[in-house]
Amino acid sequence: MEEQMMWNILGREVTPYAACNWLACAAALAVFLWQGRRLKLSARIWTAVLAAALGLFCARLFYVLARLELFLDVGLENFFFTQDESYRVWGSVSGAAFWGAVGGAALGALCAGKIAREKISDILDALAPAAALGIAVSRFAEYSIGEGIGPEAPEGLQFFPLAVMNEWEEWYFALFLLEGLVGLIIFALLLTAGRGKRNGDRARMFLILYGASQIVLEALRRDSFLRWLFVRVNQLASALVLLGVVVFGLARWLRRQKAENRHAGRLAGKTLADLALFLLPFFAVLTAYRLLVLQQPLALSGSLWWKLLSGGWPLTLAGMAGLCVLSFLQKPGPQGLTEKQAALCTAAFLVPVVTIIAMEFGIDKSADLPEEMGYLIEAVCCLAMGVNAWKIAIRG
């Protein structure tokens, strides 16, 4: 998509995409200074400087690592340079990744907390809504470079802002608009539902909400998204972040149980036994459905889970929805989750993970699964993962 330069600032040509990204940085900075007004002045200054610098650097580093083969061909001396005019974020730098920016900003907060002797979790809590707003503005900006497009739009839906037309006059859903709106919703939730939360809970809420939403939204992209072979890089990063949040929550839950003079090893063993008890019936029912109802034998191959889950997709969808409701209804006591609740929430997190892996990486996708139903199942899976990660990492 060709794009004209807007203006010249300090001898550098700036595109609409660059201008919107700088606006995103300014908006994020303003929100951080507002949310972090209770922090020490030195902590705010150091965080603003380090989070911005490391966020931009790590966003570029993530992008370069994701396309390492290309940069090895053109030379790593081009780390900060590119010939692609329309994608430039600032000056001569092109190509960045949102998860890299999030990680860099978190690293900047860590360094700022050490330097200013401020509680790092408080800095991260102030940064979370700022990151959500900055990401939302940057997502909206993808329109100016022809990125952020989804599946092809049918005839009745070929109008802006629901869909956009490319240079070949083909209409695609405006995914950039949906991603920007999701970012604004996360921003609003962090300011309302996250109000008063401390000790990093608001930051974990951001990671859960953004991570879960990105898994399904990334599956809808039909643009030049980052990939390793057939693996979508941002989907993988989102899943790993969610997994990290859940592992952190379980580790914190075990430490709290140990502090109450409960034997950690015995407790972990009992929780794992409960976890197996919750997982086995789910897969047993799916297996019986395929063998008895569909009358299709299971072959021990790399596509086994895809065949199993796609062949019984009505049951899979019902199972995912049931897990969402069941885990959402679990009410932690004054001491947090019980052993059975922790096992149930972990099982309800892992089942959607396996389902998404089967859907994304299944070798044989010849099963009769409508594309729209695949997206619906993936969305419900992400909802289940988000709900259970929240239960374990925040309510646990």
Question: Would you kindly provide a brief summary of this structure?
Answer:
The protein has 396 residues and is mainly alpha-helical. It is built from 13 helices and 9 strands. Helix 6 packs antiparallel against helix 7 and helix 7 packs antiparallel against helix 13.
Strands of the largest sheet, in order across it? 5-7-6
What is the number of independent domains? Answer: 2
The chain-level structural class is mainly alpha
Q: Whole-number radius of gyration?
A: 23 Å
Helix fraction, binned, reads 55-70%
Order of SSEs, N→C? EEHHHEEHHEEEHHEEHHHHHH
Enumerate how many helices there are, as a single number. Answer: 13
Span of the ends, CA to CA: 48 Å
